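This section describes the prediction task in plain terms. A model, or a person checking by hand, is given the sequence of a single protein chain and must write out its three-dimensional structure as a string of tokens. No templates, partner chains or ligands are provided. The sample shown here is typical of the held-out split.
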Amino acid sequence: MAENEKAVQATKKDKKSDKNAKPGFFARAGKWFRDMKSELKKVQWPTKKQTINNTLIVIACVIVVGIFIALFDFVAGEAIGLLIGAFKG
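The expected answer:
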């Protein structure tokens, strides 16, 4: 009988150690937020001037790429129109 009680106590201890091995949801979420906060403190944020400069560069690149896409679309459309017209006539 004593052996069964020891086995039951050992399994209870194992279950408790399993619970201690993995922290709960809120403990993990709290750790995640603390880690995130410490990482955000390490970020070197751009100045206002750098942000404006980078924004203008992005806008200029978008306009240039848009113009190239529009020109390609126009040329491809005209070429397809000529090919279709050549086959009709």
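For orientation: DSSP finds three helices and no strands in the chain.
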